[in-house]
Design a protein that fits this description.
The protein has one domain: Rossmann fold (3-Layer(aba) Sandwich). The chain is an alpha/beta fold. The protein is globular. Helix 3 packs across helix 9 and helix 6 packs across helix 7. It has nine helices and five strands. It starts with a helix and ends with a helix.
């Protein structure tokens, strides 16, 4: 029997329920595998992010993408990173351009202490109706851990929570 057939049987029988949660990864998260892997926390975040990518590819997670991801990624001076990250846009389930609603949400989030670009990413994720905003940015995580409309979380903690 093929692995895909066995996986299908597990999903149908309830052994591994299908999960189709929409997530948004910020640019820091997408770039994590390219960072210096000598620190254990960076290696763990990288492994979690790569595992999340596999869940996206297999359809267990949905990916939201925004014009801001395009903008920041296009500014990446490393062409190999830029190309690799841009490929994820093709995998995305949904895309959002700038809207007045997003700009208003950004203003609300900056008043809560976020930097404008960070706030704009979160506003895009909210607009896309993502359940989770994944980041490795400690500043965002410290300021925004409890948001009612979206859960802001580190990739490692996301894997722990999602697989529970």
């Amino acid at each position: 029997m093929s692995d895909s057939f066995i996986q299908h049987i597990r999903n149908v029988s309830g052994d591994q329920p299908e999960k189709t949660v929409k997530i948004y990864l910020d640019v820091c998260c997408f770039n994590r595998p390219f960072d210096d892997q000598s620190l254990l926390t960076i290696r763990l975040e990288t492994e979690a992010k790569l595992g999340i990518q596999e869940k996206i590819k297999s359809g267990h997670l949905l990916l939201g993408w925004s014009y801001l991801l395009d903008f920041e990624n296009n500014a990446n001076p490393f062409s190999e990173r830029r190309v690799e990250i841009q490929r994820w846009k093709e995998t995305a389930d949904s895309f959002v351009n700038e809207t007045e609603e997003i700009l208003l949400k950004m203003k609300e989030l900056t008043s809560a202490g976020l930097k404008p670009l960070d706030a704009l990413h979160i506003a895009c994720a909210v607009s896309l109706q993502c359940k989770y905003f994944l980041t490795v940015d400690k500043g965002i995580l410290k300021k925004m851990t409890e948001r009612s409309e979206i859960k802001i979380i580190n990739p490692v903690n996301f894997i722990i929570e999602w697989e529970a």
